Every structure is written in structure tokens, then in C-alpha cells.
UniProtKB/TrEMBL annotation:
Name of this chain's protein: CCHC-type domain-containing protein
Keywords per UniProt: Metal-binding, Zinc, Zinc-finger
Cross-referenced InterPro entries: ZCCHC3, Znf_CCHC, Znf_CCHC_sf
Stretches with biased composition (Low complexity): 259-276
Biological-process GO terms, alphabetical: activation of innate immune response
Organism, scientific name: Ixodes ricinus
PANTHER family according to UniProt: GAG-RELATED PROTEIN, ZINC FINGER CCHC DOMAIN-CONTAINING PROTEIN 3
GO molecular function per UniProt: double-stranded DNA binding; RNA binding; zinc ion binding
Top-level division of the source organism's lineage: Eukaryota
PROSITE patterns xrefs: ZF_CCHC
Record region (Disordered): 223-276
Length: 276
């Protein structure tokens, strides 16, 4: 199916009351460009073609804004699966008030109250849950990943949420479904480090310009500490998600099918037993 290569690239999305019956259709970027005809059969099979009130491309050819006649039709579309041009099409709800965020690299001493306070400016934290491994030998052990259920404040978009937070003296990676990732190399959004094409300066070791264009200043030199060279070893969103759900040896089911390979181990999210 090629879903493992699927990449989410979204512009800043509209929000508010006008999006109550609307969804965003995010097609596979490998299948660009998209045309209105590409959505006719998928929406018909989803049972909502007759409920379409407005539809059109939104800033990017693989991102389409769809407004439905009823809220029920919107929920029907969100509850199902959609394939456009034979590939997965993600249905995003721009109106949704509650989102589920993943925090990677959370040190064990960071309390849930600390996390709740860190997101206070962005919305109301409904729950902070520890993720626990379900892997032989580590079953039930808490990981360095936590999930946060957050109800966004009015006017706060997904793009306003931080990509990284400093908690407990360390940096935490914030992964928000439906939001474009940030490059840990050039700090721009829309791609990850291995896709980065920004130039690198061998003079000041900064990203964004080449040596011939370097204007080395004291502020720039002082602003780059020795620890900056370690950023190349930091995991980006894609790597962090894979590490949080490692691959286990082939299961009996796979052996029975005669297909060698791996299956993902399960990581469960569970709320804390008591107050942090």
C-alpha cells in the first residue's frame, strides 16, 4: 500500500464556527496533482457525495477543503476510511476542539502537573497518560512517551503549539497529529531533517547560508554552544514515533502464514494511578 511512506504536509488551517461541518482532505503527496474528479467516487463510496455543499483545493494541490450539508455527514466521513487515486487520504477535522498530543523524551522525574502547566496557555489539559510497553521482558514498564488530551483555547491553532518544550531540565519533542513537522536542522516546518536542503556554513557552523555568504558576528558565534553540534543526533518526529513503537520478532501468526518479517509491538497509554 505504501502507507509507510505517507507524509503529512499541511498549511495553517482555518478554524472556528464556520468549520463546524467542514473537513480537510489530505491526499498522498506522491499522487499530486489532484482534481475535483478524483474525489467523486471516494466520496460516493463513503456515502456523502450527495451531502457535499462546498469543495475546493486549499493552498496545496493535495489539500482540499470540504464543507458538508450536515454535521452527521461530517461524522460519517471522519469515522470511515478514505482512499483517493488508490492511496490513503487522511480526513482532518479543523473544528475539533480536543486533540491528542504525544510527548517524547519525557524524563521520569517530570510530573503530570508540570506538563499540565506547560500547556496552560494553549488550552485545558483533560488528561496526561503514561505510555507503557507491551513487549516481552518489559511488559508494563513506563516509557519516556506520554500522551496529552488537550482542549484548545479559542483562537489557538495546531500551528501555535510548540514543537519542543523544556521540561525537567531536558528538551521534549511535541508531536501533534495533522500538523506539519519541524526540521531539527534548519528549524523550518514542512519537512524533517533527512529531507532538509538548507545550506551549511563551514565558517560559523550555522545552517541557512554558505561560507561565501557568511557574516560572522560575535552574537552569532556566542549563540552557538558546543551542544549545538549534537542536534544532528536528535531524533525527529518520524524517528521518535518509530522508536516508541519498536518492531518485535515475527509472531506465531506470521510464521503460520509463512511470511517472515516483523510486527509492531504495542505501547499502551494509561493514566496515572494517582495525582502526580
Amino acid at each position: 500500500s505504501g502507507d509507510e511512506d505517507y507524509r503529512m504536509i499541511l498549511p495553517a488551517l482555518p478554524s472556528g464556527e464556520s468549520m463546524k461541518n467542514a473537513v480537510v482532505l489530505h491526499g498522498d503527496i506522491a499522487c499530486r496533482p489532484y482534481r475535483i474528479e478524483d474525489f467523486r467516487q471516494p466520496l460516493d463510496e463513503a456515502g456523502v457525495l450527495g451531502e457535499v455543499a462546498k469543495i475546493g483545493a486549499f493552498q496545496m494541490s493535495h489539500v482540499w477543503l470540504l464543507d458538508l450539508k450536515t454535521y452527521a455527514a461530517k461524522q460519517k466521513l471522519l469515522a470511515g476510511r478514505l482512499a483517493v487515486k488508490g492511496r490513503k487520504c487522511v480526513v482532518v477535522d479543523p473544528y475539533r476542539q480536543e486533540i491528542r498530543i504525544k510527548l517524547h523524551w519525557v524524563s521520569f522525574g517530570v510530573t503530570n502537573d508540570t506538563i499540565q502547566r506547560a500547556f496552560y496557555d494553549y488550552g485545558e489539559v483533560k488528561e496526561v497518560a503514561y505510555e507503557k510497553w507491551k513487549v516481552p521482558g518489559f511488559d508494563g514498564a513506563e516509557s519516556t512517551t506520554r500522551t496529552v488530551r488537550l482542549v484548545l483555547r479559542e483562537g489557538v491553532s495546531l500551528e501555535r503549539l510548540p514543537h519542543q518544550l523544556r521540561l525537567g531540565g531536558g528538551m521534549v519533542l511535541v508531536v501533534v497529529p495533522g500538523r506539519a513537522p519541524v526540521c531539527l536542522r534548519c528549524r523550518r516546518t514542512g519537512h524533517i531533517r533527512r529531507e532538509c536542503r538548507a545550506p551549511w556554513c563551514s565558517e560559523c557552523r550555522a545552517v541557512g547560508h554558505e561560507r561565501a555568504d557568511c557574516v560572522r558576528t560575535y552574537a552569532r558565534a556566542a549563540g552557538r554552544g558546543a551542544g549545538d553540534d549534537n542536534t544532528d543526533h536528535l531524533m525527529d518526529e518520524e524517528e521518535a514515533e518509530k522508536v516508541a513503537a519498536p518492531m518485535e520478532p515475527t509472531t506465531e501468526r506470521a510464521k503460520k502464514d509463512g511470511a517472515p518479517g516483523t510486527v509492531p509491538a504495542v505501547v499502551s497509554a494509561s493514566p496515572p494511578a494517582g495525582p502526580s
